[in-house]
Write a structure and sequence with these properties.
This protein has about 260 residues and is α+β, with helices and mostly antiparallel strands. The chain has six helices and ten strands. The protein has helices at about 35-45, 130-135, 140-150, 195-200, 205-210, 235-240, and strands at about 5-10, 15-30, 50, 55-60, 65-70, 70-75, 80-85, 95-100, 105-110, 120-130. Strands 1, 2, 3, 4, 7 and 10 form a six-stranded mixed sheet that branches. A four-stranded antiparallel sheet has the order 6-5-8-9, with no helix packed on it. Strand 3 (about 50) and strand 4 form a beta hairpin. The longest helix is centred in the N-terminal third of the chain and has 9 residues, at about 35-45.
Length: about 260
């Protein structure tokens, strides 16, 4: 998964420093397979279209993100920031370490003393490929595991993977309410097979809103998924725990309602 970090600074030299570190996550969605109608829908919900790179962008700031400054650990506030009182190390640089929201890797940058001045802000930006995140939701091995799972004997409450174009029943267990946005038709579509409909149904879904609030689902589709229909407690977990909606399938008919 493509992920990049950029540090933006603009400081003058000083001795004692009170510095704010701001961690931003730039979520990007390539528009090569999308039409103008879908692009317009995303713009209605706060995404910005970057015509130069032909992609949609959303800049997100998360609270509770770990940041290390000169070896000391901090967590970001609701603005995605930490403020520290510090001096550059003996090499004349301020070491700032952040963690990738998707890969579990660390990125360390040294900000030189000449770039620092008291009260200024260092912006750390990570770029996350949302197209890859959505594509990972179609992982066939994961779907096969879920299709074989048995969480209920009721024919009305199915669990496991959905077939392309399938409309779940209201109240059905699903891996994640990631296709219930009010601007779509509520059906599950593979991003590979149906990129336009997959993107259309994703916008303003529980999953889309959750990804703007929490990093949990960014690294969801690996060996330890946050949402999974392998158990009732994890099925639709981002709906229940992050956006306070029902974990069971529900189709939004308004901006972000109904919630169950």
């Amino acid at each position: 998964m493509a992920s990049a970090f950029t540090f933006t600074t603009g400081f003058s030299s000083n001795v004692d420093k009170t510095v704010t570190i701001k961690k931003e996550v730039l979520q990007v969605l390539d528009c090569s397979d999308l039409n103008q109608d879908v692009i317009n829908l995303y713009e209605q919900t706060g995404w910005i279209y970057n015509a130069t790179d032909n992609r949609l962008e959303r800049n997100v700031k998360y609270s509770g993100e770990p940041v290390s400054v000169e070896g000391k650990s901090y967590v970001t506030d609701s603005k995605g920031e930490v403020t520290v009182n510090t001096n550059p190390n003996k090499d004349g640089a301020l070491d700032v370490t952040t963690e990738s929201t998707t890969a579990g890797t660390k990125n360390t940058q040294a900000v030189s003393q000449s770039q620092l001045s008291d009260g200024k802000t260092v912006v750390v930006q990570e770029t996350v490929d949302m197209g890859q995140i959505i594509e990972n939701m179609d992982d066939q091995a994961l779907n096969a595991e879920e299709s074989a799972a048995t969480l209920s004997t009721s024919a009305d409450v199915q669990v496991g993977g959905l077939s392309n174009g399938q409309l779940p029943k209201h109240g059905q267990y699903v891996h994640c309410n990631r296709f219930n946005g009010y601007l779509g038709n509520g059906r599950y579509y593979s991003k590979t097979a149906n990129p336009v409909m997959a993107a259309r149904n994703f916008v303003q879904s529980d999953c889309d809103v959750a990804l703007a609030k929490s990093t949990h689902c960014l690294a969801d589709y690996g060996s330890n998924p946050y949402c999974s229909t392998k158990s009732k407690t994890t099925a639709g977990k981002c709906s229940a725990n992050i956006v306070k909606h029902s974990r069971l399938y529900h189709k939004h008919t308004g901006w972000f309602s109904p919630s169950k």
